[in-house]
Amino acid sequence: MTQTQQPRVQTPLAEKSSLIEHAFPVAKLSAESYKERKAGSGQRLTGIGKWWGRKPLVLVRASILGALLPATDDPQKDNEVFERLMGMDEDGLFERRPRKTLVRAQFAALSPEEQLKQAVLAEAYEGPSDAESWKMINDHLGTNASSLQEIVEQLGVMRFGEKPRVGDVFSGGGSIPFEAARLGCDTYASDLNPVAALLTWSNQALLCATPEDRARIDAAQKWVYEEVDRQITEWGIEHDEQGRRADAYLWCNEVLDPETGYRVPLTATWVVSVKDRVVAELVPDDANKRYDIRIVTGASDAQMTKAKQGTVVNQHLVPPPTKDNPQPHATQMSRLRDRHNSGQGLRSWESKDLIPRTEDFYQERLYCVRWTNEKGKRSYESAVTADLSREAKALSLLEERWTTWQESGFVPSRPIEAGPRASRVFAAREWRYWSNMFTPRQLLTNGLFAQAIAQSEEPKRLLSLLGKIADRNSRLARWDPSRDLAIQTFSSQSLAPLYNFAIRGWSTLQDTAVPTSSLFSASLDVHLKDARSTMTPRTIWITDPPYADAIDYEEISEFFLSWYEKRIPALFPNWYADTRRALAVKGKGISFNESMIEVYSNLAHLMPDNGVQIVMFTHQDAEVWADLAMTMWASGLKVSAAWTVATETTDGINGGSNYVQGTVLLVLRKRGEVETLFEDDIRSKMRQEVSKQLKDMQLLEGAGLRWSDADLQLATYAAALRVITSHDIDGIDPRSELLKVRAKGEKSPVHLLIDQASQVASRELIPRGVEPSIWRDLGPHERFYLKGLETEQRGEHRSGVYQELSKGYAASNWRDLLGDDRANNVRLMTATEMGSRSVNTGPLAGTLLRHLLMAVQITAREGSPEKGIAWLQSDAPNFAMQQTKAIKLLEHLGKQALPHWKADAEAARVLRGALMNLGV
């Protein structure tokens, strides 16, 4: 839309609630977010550089549109318009299919899950392409748009009197500002961390370049690779006498085994390539007290199996047998380290240390080189003398340039500062400088790239390329034999030194090239500053704060900063080149809460009275998000809605088996003038609001929205928070409560109020088929179990959903009831799987439901109900008084239609029938 164009109908939205405050299709957004996350390197921003916990672009887009779209008196049409703009309805999914192979009828016949599977990522969707869709959208909204950018601008004018101005003061990897600018918003971004600021800036500079700039960037990047290739080829450090070129070098550590006197190579596996059946075999060299490492291609099944066993097992050295020692003993690695240096620990490395010294406990050894000939055929071969000579030449070339390159910032010079991850590096290897994490060949190659980037025509826009190369070419890059690939340093965030690692040659570093494109983007203003010092007004603030976060951003990002530190000040004159650890807003506790209040008080001041804030955070414990809500209250903000969207996959930040978590979206407005109420009044209003919230959401189900119980549970928290944060409560000062030192397990008054709201919800969220009179008498874990079974029946297996249910029912030991705890495969134990365990000590101990489950498994095992009834009559307390209740609960258990419940459901039906025949 041009500056002179105006919306067709000037409907004022300034006082109207936004769509996100009333409805948000979290199920579809969760599926879209999960799809985006699982795309890995296929995500738009991951190609620019590594960052941790980036929020999905689809979630950012949904949040902005949800904040701008009005909530009208036609919720079904509101939802249709929103999903059409997002491309999440059937029409949008059909447009998003990558190939024009399926006709509409064929596509419509697919299930919603299959339709989504066929579609490209929502981040690539540019909005509806047909006039009919835009007519439906414009008729409902009173607009005259024909693109996402036009609808965003028109809605902004209608709501704020101007194009939306969006801000993010914790920009991190840049998802929020990137997508906001892509939607046409005037966008402000800042971060305290220079690595984060560089990524946020680079996202825009590389992916939203003009066609002319893009051509220049691509040409410069091509020149950089060619220049590095020219120099490496001229030096002859990657080519052999046959003209072949090495593209991967496999190294391992080596230690002296005092028991045998042999130097033993260390690795957890000797499998080199699964696909090509390549293994390394250790052959004792008795004369030199060492092992030759022979590379075998086309290994037999027996050789492949043997190679899976390395020389390090559970942190114990397990040397291969020799003639003099056919059955060597396993020795703990830590004992060997202590014995090597008489208990004094490892030697601390200095900046000038490029390779281990001869007296060091850990030595390094090249054992395999992968060669590629002119026809592209690859072969794995043992390292020979000529290979070692090329390594020595690489070291000599690096030493010649070392001082000059460090002064120019082409190789790292800064020490590693202390921190949780640094302490592991110190303990494992005593590397004290970032340069110690790279071999001479890696420093030489990476340094050539740094030098070429600096000399190119685009040194600023190609700086992030250097970080990608360092990430993929360090001593912490492991070799993956299943993919025949050196895996990047930050495949996890541990910074853990490896016993064996891989070095990339020039040709396998080509996949680190940064992508470029000419996507549309409005203005994006990026600043490097403390969130508390922001002075730029915005109509919408969207932030993803480092709340209760396990990620030490400032520490692990220093890996990248060690390569940027002298380039950033030269290219960005107003930026600094350290992570400002002391100023970082992170963690938990009083100082953190105080900083958060300062940040969000400032942001509240920097938005209009009808402005909106959306706070995203990925939560881990039940009280974290309630603390955050109290922070917002103390900052002059009130909660108008809260939603949970599943955004993390099983490949999450810490790589845990149960890592899936939901991102909580808190929608906030300015508090303005509020009424002071007593706690009893708050409780009464809270109960009414919770009940109304559940009823409203049930009505919305009729408008095509589907809610999980976790959604409903969280919505009740939001209802409670709306009441709490929209009033002052007599005797409660949120700032004082947040900054108060509490005993372990002690809850604030606000937490107690939220718990009471949860109890209201749990009484109303009754599984279908369970009578309210029975439900009222059940304990927390009984309610969780029965509700969990219903959740399973609907095909819901995300860990975050069950976690939310556990909070609602106060079922603190819910994990003890799981039959499978894998992140996206969560399910409850069946009666048979429970067996006789935990009848008197587990979370269901002593309850009627637990005794019934025991009787069911006895019935299933015996094939008849007699012994099950005998168990109930002898072991279930007061069973005669509870027989009617037992029959009704067995009826519910007997209706379980899940495959793994088949035998137990049948046993429950048989047992119920037998009890009915006994009479009451």
Automatic annotation (TrEMBL):
Residues 316-347 are annotated as: Disordered. The keyword rRNA processing does not apply. It comes from the Bacteria. NCBIfam families: DUF1156_antiphage. Transmembrane segments: none annotated. Residues 23-84 form the DUF1156 domain. This is Adenine-specific DNA methylase. Residues 324-334 have a biased composition (Polar residues). InterPro entries: Antiphage_assoc, DUF1156, SAM-dependent_MTases_sf. It comes from Deinococcus budaensis. One of its GO terms (biological process) is methylation. Signal peptide: none annotated. One of its GO terms (molecular function) is methyltransferase activity. The keyword Transport does not apply. Keywords: Methyltransferase, Transferase.
